[in-house]
Amino acid sequence: MKNEITFPYPYIIEALDQYYGLKSHSTKKIVSKEHSKKSVLSKKGSKKKFSILIATFWSFPHVGGLSNYIATLSKGLKSQGHKVDIISPNQFSTSKVKQFREMVTPNLKHFFTKRYGSYNDRILNHKRLIYVYEKMLETIDLEKYDILHAQDLFTANILGRFNEFYNKPLFYTPHGMFTSNRLRFNIIKKGSVEEAYFTELENKAIKYASHIIVLSDSFREPLIKLGAKSKNITTVITGIDYPDNQREKLETSPSNLVITCVARLGPRKGHNHLFEALARLKKYTSNVEVLIVGDGQMREKLEKQKKALGLSMVKFLGSRDDVPSILNKTDIFVLPTINDSLPLSIIEAMHSGTAVISTNCGGIPELIKHNKTGIIVEPGDTEQLAHALKFLIKNKEVRNKMSTNGKIHAKNHLTVGSMIGKIQHLYTDFWEMN
């Protein structure tokens, strides 16, 4: 295995050969989990507490939903007596990473150039990252883990390759559909070699996985199109631990109607659409305060937009570590995202007892029942968003009813206990099957 790692995986070579019109000579197959069982996993019910490796291709800890999910998953599993380790690139030795990068880069350039006449920078850089991750993983004793849980298609591929030898239950949780999202936002081009490369990685992540745990049912259709079977997919909606604080609203003062948006200030979160909607509602926002919680690359542009639209009610709070306190003083939570999976900020808002407005993206409609626990609008539709805001600003009784419904739903279905119980059950089932 070590001699192969320098170069693209055999199935990646085949996919690239097909893209470039070459006859492929590399046909190393994935070992079927149905025909290669290790005796160490054969005793049903022999272990109640598992040793679990959670793997992510991104930095951990970090700001954002993925990092929060991993932290919640790890903490919840540990609370049940399981041993949990997390591996992420920022844990790797900087000097070792540099050494491996300098060693592999010329080899990869040579391989791609000799085989295809040139190399693609994005694929080269990505394959280099995979190689470094694998070299670091080689220093870890994977035999000691009962369960492997990849949090993205890349670690699903990497662990999948190693797991051809270890044959552990390997779970895969995608936090987004990598290739289709990048095509949608023109990060990669339709019909490009990059599309062929990343699509093949997604295909193989599915094949390597013993089971796929998704955050919402919205993942099912795209995964099935890539070859997953519906019976091999289980939806486990994210749960959180949320402080059960009393609401801190100042009911007697009409000047305290607070609208809050908690999100990274990135182009996909739709803050610009929120500002455009607010600009239509100046007649109704004289007693409204809008809090923008979060930071990011769009801050300067958004501050200019705020000024240009004359939105004096908008305040940028930056990154905060007291989000629950802010939400407890919030009347309406808005997340105008144009691309998302299952935002934790919405789950937090529901737990806080805040009426929610968000968009028809990813698993959001599985969290918000339209006109019952909140309002769903189409992403990027400023007119719909303005109408929803106006409706909740003017209708306190409806707003409070949605807040109550949302909180009840969150307490019943969106807790760490519920989430961990379902995942733990899947771990146990696959342990016993092996």
What strand line-up does the widest sheet have?
2-1-3-4-5-6
Low-confidence stretches: 1-5, 27-46, 249-253
General shape:
globular
Give the helix proportion (percent range). Answer: 40-55%
CATH architecture of the largest domain: 3-Layer(aba) Sandwich
**What's the domain count?**
2
In CATH terms, what is the fold-level topology of the largest domain?
Rossmann fold
CATH class of the largest domain: Alpha Beta
How much is the average pLDDT?
A: 90
- Protein structure class: alpha/beta
Major β-sheet profile: 6 strands, parallel
Q: How much strand?
A: 5-15%
The SSE string, one letter per element, is HHEHEHHEHEHHEHEEHEHEHEHEHEHHH
Measured on Cα atoms, how large is the radius of gyration? 24 Å
Tags for this entry?
6-stranded parallel beta sheet, 2 domains, globular, Rossmann fold, disordered N terminus, 434 residues, alpha/beta, 12 strands
